[in-house]
Amino acid sequence: MKRRSVLFLALVCALIMPAQEKVASVEGITEYRFPNGLRLVLFPDASKPTITVNLTYLVGSRHENYGEAGMAHILEHLVSYGSPKHPDAKKEQADRGARRNASTWFDRTNYYETFPASDANLEWALDLEADRMVNAFVKKDILESQMTVVRNEFEAGENSPAGVLIERVLSTAYLWHNYGKSTIGARSDIENVPIERLLAFYRTYYQPDNAVAVVAGRFDEAKALGVAAATLGKIPRATRTLPQTYTAEPPQDGERTVTLRRSGDVQLAAVAYHIPAGPHPDFAPLAVLTNVLASSPAGRLHKALVETKKAAAVRGFQWALREPGSALYLATVRKEASLDDARATLLRVLDSLAAEPVNEQEAGRARTQLVSALELELNNSEQIGLELSEWASQGDWRLLFLYRDWLRRVTADDVQRVAQAYYRASNRTIGTFIPEAQPLRAEIPPPPDVAAAVKDYKGDAAATAGEVFDPSPANIDRRSIRKQIPGGARLVLVPKKTRGGTVTGVLRLHFGSQTSLQDRGAESELARMMLMRGAAKRTRQQIQDDLSRLKARVNVGGDGGFVEVSIETVRASLPETLKLVAEILREPSFPAEEFEQLRQLRLAQNEAALSEPQSLAMTHFNRHMSPYPKGDARYVETPEERIAGLKAAGLDAVRRFHQQFYGASDSELALAGDFDAAEVERLSAQLLDGWKSTEPYAEIQRPYQKIAAAARAIETPDKANAVFYAGMRFNAGDEHPDYPALVLANYMLGGHSASRLYLRIRAKEGLSYGVGSALIAQPRENNAQFTAFAISNPQNVPKVEKAFREEVDRALKEGFAGEEVAAAKKGWLESQQVNRSQDQGLARRLRSHLQYGRTMAFDAELEKKIQALTPEDATAALRRHLDPAQISVFTAGDFRPQAGGR
User: Fold this and answer.
1) pLDDT cut 70: percent of the chain above it
2) How far apart are CA 757 and CA 768, in angstroms?
């Protein structure tokens, strides 16, 4: 639809149709109700150069009937395909550089796209969602293709013992309610659901009176209202009566048990309780209780299980749902430990809440962590634009703010009250049935009156707005401040006003050399992972508490030759956050008890990888593509070697590694957001100057070497999903004359969701849920790598490889058409704009450029070259570098006949 026609229609609608009703406005977010029942939620944020459109239908697996398990999710796949006015929705989204997805949950299904902000793009997105709402291609031929894709997604989930155990626990906890059924559905229903039932389901629930549309980002509110009226608002109101579910789960009348026996390398124990619905006021103190029990390292379960080495890790979470849901705790136990002991300890801690009430220190710490995390999310309009789906599906999007307010007021007495009300033996599911003479049942209250709860709710004042920022390379360079502080650290700073005064960044320290890092892999990994577990002036818990107080997120990552810290906080907290990061990096305390907990965790994680298809396929593929001798800093270890290294590594050696290698003499700090640049420069000099590594740094080089083609199939018994990796290396880098053409060629071949590999292997043949390709090229190296990846049923792996090779051959023989190249250039260029609009990604890009002496002019030049490419350029470059005879293929799965059937 052309822009002028949409705007004209918007004007006509405004004149002849009843006006939309303004329902509520909370903290800068406003809801309108259209005559056809559609709810439109607008969240304008001028600081975002993007717009997110998120359309939520209040239908999910809870609404499925007998024989329809997984139908809501299958319908999500079909609707994502397109409609008469938008016959190739995924291609349109890719052409506009949009990040898009859809998801299905118990109470809702949502479709969203994030794209560069413009009136034209917003009109296109709302028109797309309006046409898909009532005219989507819900057809038999598409169902036949997507059934196998969804089945493959089901099979991928079957590879996770933890995921399957959670499904089994919930299916045992619920006798009647559909919350006991996974949204992915039953295999038999996925394979056999009739198109007629899907179409009836679609026509019933995909209507404006059952939908909530959220628009968040940079847009004009009046224009958005007009366009919504001309698209979603003009759909006639449904004449049917919307069905209402009425199944209620009765109070559980005794402890239930379930045992799962499958292939795996770690043991698991889980406990689940029924709890009230998300809109119920008790949900907030229950969230605090979950944090008190399962957080690390202060949580009671962590102390009782992880610190005593009875378990490698513990997790706890609860589901906020429209109707009464569940809270669940999961312990990961290594094979050599006692599962019975871990399960008994898990139950003992949960049962001890009556005798050992939650104190105010525990409740206060948990409350601060939860509120801080929620307030950080509220500063990101794109993230909240998606998060509102969850709350709208519970009854009203304003529940998000009501939940925050409830959290702020939670006391230790509130937490203790809900613990005694719901954490009862008769209300939990762990394993076997235990009869009781007089069972004590937990009465779960019905969902409250949401309308009454949110009536006249105002909330806090809206967050401060950010500036309108142009994410073009030229403007980013104009706004960038580049400095080198004494001692060698380099800075690149992009100060700008952001919503809520947020600031994000990344600090990377480089250290060591190919020679000095030889045989130091385990020490490097453990030293890096110990940084957040204690510092000179703070314990692990104190670090977490300070981050919560500062409204900051700090994560540490890296590899053998570097450590990288990502930072997210607000303007007022940035100086103190940087000081905390410096302390963590410079003065780690390496506590012995934390070291042993970390070792146990990493051992469990690597033991789990021993039978996991994706981990094994990727490891062996990377070992083949990086053929260096054992001990070399570039060597790729097997899971068994990583386990041996972890067992052999000592705490003293890890401490020495930090003392020998860590320093800021070769480092970069990049920040983007709301901050005082002069203050950051002064503080960085103060914190980093004089901190030098005793071991000289030399960048590890990986020169090109021709890798002979190889093929290997790795058997992983009892795994329903298989993994396919293929690729080759070639003598080129990101400054090679062919690099722009190779980037574009890979984008068309497998680099996005409308690429050739995606359309052939997923869309047309339905062989894989996830498929694509990547081109990897590093600065200062002529050692590029092309890699393709897919997951599938083990018996379909030969078909996947056949389709992959045929598409590669077709690209080499036939080349690319002009229309395909034009669309790919547009999609790739707009995707770069979307990437630059995310401050965390921008900071990482700027840091990388700083390391290699580049600016954003490199990106501008690359985009200019890609824009000038012809179809002949892309084809010729691909033919010069990609040789099918040199492509290696590694697969992992259960390839025995009839494997995967259950």
Assistant:
1) 96
2) 10
Closest to 652 (Cα-Cα) out of 576, 590, 730: 590
Kindly state whether residues 170 and 73 are assigned to the same domain. Answer: yes
CA dist 633 and 647 (Å) reads 19
pLDDT bin (cut points 50, 70, 90) of residue 157 is: confident
Asked whether residue 464 is assigned to any structural domain, the reply reads no
Helix (H, G, I), strand (E, B) or coil at 496: coil
Q: What is the pLDDT of residue 262?
A: 83
Q: Is residue 241 part of a domain?
A: no
Residues 808-817: what's their mean pLDDT?
97
Q: Map residue 755 onto helix, strand or coil.
A: coil
The sheet with strand 502-510 has its strands ordered as 481-484, 490-495, 667-673, 502-510, 562-570, 553-559
Residues 106 and 217 in one domain: yes
- Higher per-residue confidence, 812 vs 438: 812
* Residue 624 sits in the same domain as residue 730: no
Q: Does residue 428 sit within a domain?
A: yes
- Cβ count within 10 A of residue 604: 22
- Report CA 754 to chain centroid distance, whole Å: 21
SS3 for 791? strand
pLDDT recorded at residue 440:
64
The reply to whether 104 and 227 lie within a common domain is: yes
Shared domain check, 334 and 400:
yes
For 111, the domain range is 3-234
Q: Tell me the C-alpha distance between 461 and 399, whole Å.
A: 16
Query: Across residues 23-47, what is the average pLDDT?
Result: 96
The structural domain count of the chain equals 4
The amino acid at residue 485 is I
The packing angle between helices 818-836 and 857-867, to 10°, is 160
> Does residue 411 form part of some domain?
yes
Residue 138, classed as helix, strand or coil, is coil
Residue 42 has pLDDT above 80, yes or no: yes
Amino acid, res. 344:
A
